[in-house]
Amino acid sequence: MSATKPYSTDPADLGFDPEELRAKYNHERDKRIRKEGFGQYKAAAGELEEYMVDHYVDPGFTREPLTDEVEVAIIGGGYGGLLAGARLREIGVESIRMIDKAGDFGGTWYWNRYPGAQCDIEAYVYMPLLDELDYVPTERYAHAPELLEHSRNIARHYDLYKDTVFQTEVSEINWDESSKRWIIHTNRGDAMKAQYIAMANGPLTRPKLPGIRGVEKFKGHTFHTSRWDYNYTGGSPEGGMTRLADKRVGIIGTGATAIQCIPHLGEDAKSLHVFQRTPTSVDARYNAPTDPEWKAKLKPGWHKKRVENFNNTLGGAYTDDDMVGDGWTDIFRNVGGIVTGDVDNLTEEQKDEVFELGDFQKMQEIRDRTDSIVEDPETANKLKAYYRQFCKRPGFHDEYLQTYNRPSVTLVDTNGQGVDEITESGVIVDGVEYALDCLIFSTGFETGSSYTSQSGYDLIGKNNTRLSEKWANGLRTHHGLTTHNFPNCFILGFTQTGVTPNATHMLDEQASQMAYIVKEARARHAATVEATKQGEDEWCDICDSYGDKTEQLLAQCTPGYYNNEGGGSNKNGFISGQYGGGAVKFFQILKEWREDGNLAGMEIK
Ligand code: NDP
């Protein structure tokens, strides 16, 4: 134990050598850096358009264009849009139109129906509006069908199906100053009017493909995980893909999505080749059905309490009262174990060091777990992740690693370099061609492009201000929710907000904030409510004042979409420009702002 530090950095005490691990992590990162950064990926468009097909609707849907008017139009029918609708209904807004390109509500859970899809944050904190719907998930980490059905239940509970338009893609939204209305144009020829708009487009929605040589050439069957083709595979999100029994299947990607579907593919396909560039850290899931006795004891308000407790724990509250107590909160418990004395008395530098030690310890445990499950030591080694746990979305699964013990499953590790080439009949790695009947891309979603590129439409506000131009050099908002020159417009998502992995918590805070503002505007008979230039500048200054500590930390990580594929700062990066004080402080700021009641930083007319 050091004389000045209330914790040890001695490898003999720790059971691992921090210096050695740091060097190994750097080595693994460096070999993966690609100079093309985000440019290594291709959009699912043009000759790759087939990867966008919606397999869950009947083809040929048509309807008459709409030109009617509503009080609030919500773009996006996922949990974000549903929360917006719910909170607006609670303040008495009756005239709501929801718009989504999908065939039903659900957003992420509409599209991601791949076998084994499940929430990786505990359902008791991830699923929104559980108190309001008096619903308790059936298992600790709910599967996609339940998550999708919950979306529909929210829509039914709050009567949101009424006036909703599905299979409708917004193409442009214009502010009409004379009528003080937004005009929403879509691919269905609509020109709907709305007093307010709320954009809940979601951050990971447009499938992307790797720009591997020959990616368009494959002649077998192929699809992206977010457009699972059960007509081809047979089965359902529960598995049972009997039509794969005579098929040679390959999957590219081993991220959070892949680790959930690979066990089912391993079970059902004649053979499975997994093409890996970087392993995901896969810790134990310990999923279980909801305990009826625990459920019976829940008191009204239990959900809100648990959601806040999870957020506080991840926010570094170093609390003994960790209600969720799973792999997400482990590091924080580890930190408590490493330090002798009160964690709060550490200097900031010591906290960073202790946090790194806790992370090393956690990742070492996960690597040891791989050895204990995967029978072939060479395969086990290739499945070990050498980076800090939050460099990538941490994985949790109780059958993923076991899948590699099946004789029909082969891990093709590319030593960080990725697949070399795709041919008409298969995939080439290191000069070896793997012949396949079916090639599945589990290669994630478009990030690193502008907000308007990801949403698929531009917004033209007051004075002909285009959102794409206004945000060309980075986000500019007031509290991440409104932006100057765009009256009566709310943005829900990671837009200068405090980041939390529990996205639905963030969306609910934003939805509640939006509902509060609309309520105030209604009470004051206002036609418009808008962020002032000053209010926006002040919020941007606050965000800037945190500097880029998070970005710097992530820059040391293995490449991925969190750190702009290892390419350093990027004005459109996934976490770029976010409020750096964390979600706990961010929610507190919103709460105090509402309590203050002056709508500071906004102009109401
Ligand atoms: P990711 O972007 O996380 O993963 C893409 C995968 O494709 C990576 O393994 C990547 O490797 C690999 N890849 C890319 N290019 C190549 C190439 N040329 N050759 C070989 N492999 C390649 O996408 P996911 O869909 O897995 O996850 C996206 C996000 O969705 C998650 O981070 C998470 O936020 C969310 N998610 C949430 C879930 C939940 O339960 N709530 C479940 C699943 C996903 P490399 O790592 O080297 O880049």
Kindly list the characteristics that best describe this protein.
605 residues, alpha/beta, FAD/NAD(P)-binding domain, seven-stranded mixed β-sheet, 34% helix, 15% strand, globular, binds NADPH dihydro-nicotinamide-adenine-dinucleotide phosphate
- How would you characterize the largest beta sheet? 7 strands, mixed
CATH topology of the domain at 69-206 and 447-599: FAD/NAD(P)-binding domain
List low-pLDDT spans.
Answer: none
Spatial separation of the terminal alpha carbons: 63 Å
What characteristic shape results from the CA principal axes? globular
CATH class term of the domain at 69-206 and 447-599:
Alpha Beta
Kindly state the number of beta strands.
Answer: 21
Could you characterize the architecture of this molecule?
With about 600 residues, the protein is α/β, with parallel strands linked by helices. The chain has a domain of about 290 residues: FAD/NAD(P)-binding domain. The protein is about 35% helix and about 15% strand. It is built from 21 helices and 21 strands. Strands 2, 3, 4, 5, 6, 18 and 19 form a 7-stranded mixed β-sheet that branches. Strand 4 and strand 5 form a beta hairpin. Helix 3 packs parallel to helix 18 and helix 18 packs parallel to helix 21. The protein starts with 10 loop residues before the first helix and ends with a strand. The mean pLDDT is about 95. The structure holds NADPH dihydro-nicotinamide-adenine-dinucleotide phosphate (NDP).
